[in-house]
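Please, structure for the following, as tokens.
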Amino acid sequence: RLWAQLHFVSQDALKSVDAYEQLWQFATQDADPSAFEPLREPIQRKAAEFRQTMLDAQDKHVASVLEFAQRAYRQPLSDGQRQTLLSLYKNLIANETPHEDAIGLMVARVLVSPEFLYRIERPAEGTDKPANITDLELANRLSYFLWASMPDKTLMDLAQSNKLSDPVTLRAQVQRMLKDPKAQQMAVEFGTMWLHIRDLDVLDEKSETHFPEFALIRSDLYKEAIYLFTDALANDRSVLDLLSGDYTFLNGRLANYYGIPDVGPADASEPWRKVDGVRKYGRGGILTLGATLAKQSGASRTSPILRGNWLCEVVLGEKLPKPPKNVPVLAELPPEGITERELTERHSSDPACSKCHQRIDPYGYALENYDAIGRFRTHDASGKAINTTTQLPTGQKIENFDDLRNYLEVHRKEDFVRQFNRKLLGYALGRSVQLSDEPILSEILQQQRAGGWSIQETICQIVLSKPFRQIRGKDFQDEALQQ
């Protein structure tokens, strides 16, 4: 079969005719071309047979484009869609367009159609009330939520038989899909966006003078975050593991970078593996990922302000006011004799800024043991000991990152989980979370308390929720557009 495909694609039978004629003409110049004459008939016969094979294949090509269109549209072709593509092909052939070009234009027509470019969902006519989406629409929502890609055959078969919307079936499909390698795309599309580290593997904002090693390690820092989140999905970890789990994913190179022994050769970029017991090395959870620490830092120094703001808003979901206008920009490097923390404290003492900085800076100070590219340190570049002692807005004193992590685990875990749920729900729905979604978020949080904070159960609750399985009525949408 592979040989047949090679002959078909290369069209060697037709090219052999031209090659034979060139050889024959060349031989007439200074030799007897009759030696080549016995080859003429077999070559011509094979060329004629191949032309017929090409004609016989034309209908198969058209049928293949229709099958491709069905996959591209992620639903069975309607009679109108099928007829549109067939009419295009017939009109092209009637206008003497070569068959191969006509097939190419059919494919192009599929790829510019709204059915391919958009996930089209049609609301019910004559009502402004929400209604359940079809099973095919549900298959698309589910697949793009968990895989960031089109549904596979299993999902499509269930959808076409109208079995997917059954809650038991839907839950089983969520569990199946999260164990599939394609779920890593959810770690990329949701996880890295949630943590604000998307494309860290190509980040070129770090000073090469101060951190020449960052270019080599940045892709490993990025992969660590992706593997951590992928594992949480596939193995149904607790949501709280993302905050403070005592494990991470390392290869030899990243383990050496972090100072964690017995993982592998220091220059090995593969293989990756789960490494337990990393909290004693200052790792474990999203707060100590080199990716998040590096992204929330400057080009040449750490930034307690960036890290504190990220922890408040992204991790805990606090709403902070926008900074006042004309706030002076901090120097990229502290003046000689001044630590990075002291530079921040001078800036934060401004009365116009102090109120917000009292909320965010303590979190950043507790992370000062990590440099601007995520390495653990006890002294800064000038040799001064790092000071991580601080006091949270609640009045609680913090000596180091371990104290901060313990505080978050004990006093802010539900804030963290609720923020994670909010971001995940918004990603699943493809829109910002609204006030009307608050009951759903409260219900999900209640289920998590009872179910051990399971990530898979969180996703199941979102998939089974009304916002995920319903669409507003057409009258409501028309009214919204008019407004």
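Residues 15 and 47 are 9 Å apart (CA to CA). The chain has a mean pLDDT of 92.
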